[in-house]
Amino acid sequence: MPGFDALLPRPVRVTPADGDCVWPVPVRFATDPELGTEAYRLEITPGGVSVHAGGRPGAFYAEQTLRQLRGPHAFRAAAIHSGPSILPCGTVEDAPRFGWRGCLLDVARNFRTKAEVLRFVDLLAAHKLNVLHLHLTDDQGWRLEVPEFPRLTEVGAWRRGSMVGRHDGPERDGRPHGGFYTGDDLSEIVAYASERFVTVVPEVDIPGHSRAAIAAYPALGGDPAARPEVWTSWGVSEGVLDPSESTVDFYRTVFGHLLDIFPSPVIGIGGDEVPGVTEEHHGLTRRIAEFLCERGRRAYGWDELLDSALPLGEGTIIGSWRGESAGIEAALAGHEVVMCPEQYVYLDHRQAAGPGEPIPVGYLRTLEDVYRYEPVPQGLPAEARPRVLGAQAQLWTEHLDSVRRVDYAAFPRLAAFAEVVWSEREPREVAEFVHRLREHHLPRLDALGVEYRPLDGPLPWQTRPGVPGRPR
Asked: Does 430 have pLDDT greater than 80?
């Protein structure tokens, strides 16, 4: 049978022992205050399993490791395995490298049902990822019910069609698209994720990417008589919030409602891709950041926030998406940073250069490229490196219009990313990882029902012949 080396991520401290453990056996849990909250020590003997964890998250991650060791059948929704499972004996000592191990899921461009989001939480937890960044609003849709402003979902939650692929022409599919979450839906997602030690970080994007909100309440765009529609295109809309006092009051109400639902200490406020941005627009995001700070939370904004002469709101975290330089700048200035550069960890970007890749957009980033990614930039001085909280993969869904397409874009690259943010930098051998993935982890994904991209290329039904992309 395979040993620890074949079955577990790298690098994990493993001390093999003689003998095998025939599962099921008793599992004993104990708290070890000398371990970090997410750390654990797993001791497997012929007589049973002992888990020593620094906290409940560590115990949960130890359980995920036991699932890995038991075999792919342990990842199925119901028991189908007959007979015992054989586990190698020994000790596993494990702890994450980063405290922020995240993935953004964009539910604004293409809505994902509550059930699909819950499934995605399960997939994150199985890979020991601990942040789900939920992108709830954009030009193409508003997904958050706000009782004080019902038109946000009555109008802003649906559009009359969608651009087909990525092009500069007028072609649309003519199919209405929409959906939103009630407050109870979101509370359920939060509670479900919390049980799996995943923090849900909600994002309401301001002052750009706001066309859906402006379609619902045109005064937000500065012209109450305007009649804009929820956008049916992809890209960056000219719909930008008017940075007036009434807009600030409107979004204080929106974010106040958000705080009632989401206990996350971090709340996303956007700040990216604002056409014709002014210091008044930056002032709007700063005031919302201050609003969050006054209520004991921290703002998370994209790295365009650094382009303003205005100081950032206290405690604001920067998501460095346009590359690594913004993350370096922010960390040197004393801000905490989450690294999410599009050149490396945008999982909606194409996975191969060949013609079979469905709707090829963005940079070419293979599985191997993702596994080679190093979240701490080389140019960052040692004293600033602790300000890198971790990293986050991004799943923007302009071209991911079903859960099957999300699976295809995310996996197995998200498995590679999960190992990058959990494990120490060295050693990281690509060929060895791909072998482990092929032999042991892809069967786990099969058991979970994940329609990942095969290592040798897409299956026929995973292609999108004739649908244009925009590769970079």
From this structure: yes
Angle, in degrees to the nearest 10, between helices 114-126 and 183-195: 20
Domains, in order of start, for the chain: 4-94 (3.30.379.10), 100-471 (3.20.20.80)
**Whether residue 412 has a cis bond before it, omega within 30° of 0:** yes
φ/ψ of residue 78, rounded to 5: -140, 155
pTM of the model: 0.96
CA distance 179 to 141: 8
Q: Which pair of tokens denotes residue 463?
A: 């292609």
357 is catalytic: no
Please list, in sequence order, all residues whose beta carbon lies within 8 angstroms of the beta carbon of residue 113, skipping any fewer than 6 positions away: 179
Q: Give the model confidence (pLDDT) of 207-263 as tens digits.
A: 999 999 999 999 999 999 999 999 999 999 999 999 999 999 999 999 999 999 999
With beta carbons less than 8 A apart as the criterion, state whether 134 and 161 touch. no
What is the model's pLDDT at position 80?
93
Q: Catalytic one among 273, 324, 336, 419?
A: 273
Residues 6 or more apart from 453 whose CB is under 8 A from it?
351, 408, 409, 411, 412, 462
Q: Give the count of alpha carbons within 13 A of 303, CB side only.
A: 21
Which of 373, 370, 372, 375 is CA-nearest to residue 412? 370
Cα 230 versus chain centre, distance: 25
Q: Looking at residues 31-55, what average pLDDT do you find?
A: 96
pLDDT at residue 1, as a whole number: 47
